[in-house]
């Protein structure tokens, strides 16, 4: 491995940046639902989640709280786990491609595949956090 890449991968700043990037879909969505609370409630209602206000609040807490735990590298397993479960639950709620046909089904399938990849990334975040704690880093 080139020394520059090794140095980058060993950098605590790069670690923090990576945690910020992997959680971006969650904290940006959580902030959007917090800033435009009524829009978040409308989104929950669109997916027949009742009562929508409660689901919006729970989503904000999960997305922002889980992201914060991962970004701060504190109880990372809990934050990454919460975000992974949240992401998994969005598949049948918002991306049920198996109930659709044509281009819409294909688009939702691609979203599902991306969600599964993101879940894998969150699993790696938890694994790497655990390994760094065990090594005393």
How would you sum up this structure, described in words?
- There is one protein chain.
- This protein is an all-alpha fold and 137 residues long.
- It has 7 helices and no strands.
- Helix 4 (37-46) crosses helix 5.
- The longest helix is centred in the last third of the chain and has 33 residues, at 102-134.
- It is globular.
Question: Keywords, please?
Answer:
137 residues; mainly alpha; 0% strand; globular
Task: Please provide a brief summary of the model.
This protein is mainly α and 137 residues long. It contains seven helices and no strands. Helix 4 crosses helix 5 (52-72), helix 5 runs antiparallel to helix 6 (76-94) and helix 6 (76-94) runs antiparallel to helix 7 (102-134).
- Biggest beta sheet attributes: none
Global mean pLDDT: 96
First-residue to last-residue Cα separation: 21 Å
Coarse shape: globular
Secondary-structure map with pairings?
Elements: H1 3-10, H2 12-22, H3 24-35, H4 37-46, H5 52-72, H6 76-94, H7 102-134
Helix pairs in contact: 2-5, 3-4, 3-5, 4-5, 5-6, 6-7
